[in-house]
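Here is one chain, start to finish.
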Amino acid sequence: MVSHQLTISLDEDAFRALEKRAQSERRPLEEVAASMLTTASKVPATGMTSLEGRFVVGQIVTPSAFDPTEPLVLVRGIYYRYRIAGKPQPGQRFVVTAVKDNVLTLTPTNESEDDA
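Its structure:
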């Protein structure tokens, strides 16, 4: 895999939010930023006009967010029905890539819950 370096400028609020997320996930700032950019590049840029589309698309979902008794997943404080695109591995994280009729499409990422 080819790796590229990128230098970006962030305003103070964006930097602090990124820093806070990195601390909460106990990961390096650069790793969190790279992961967020990689995830964002996989999310379709069109059709996200619904509240759910704007609110949850791009969110990372960990295995602990899945309800063990019902086919529901907790994203940003709300339980949603879901479908999984692709073949997940045990402990794998997902990114919300689409919403249709309040059903989320979850796409497996290359990260597992143990990576946090």
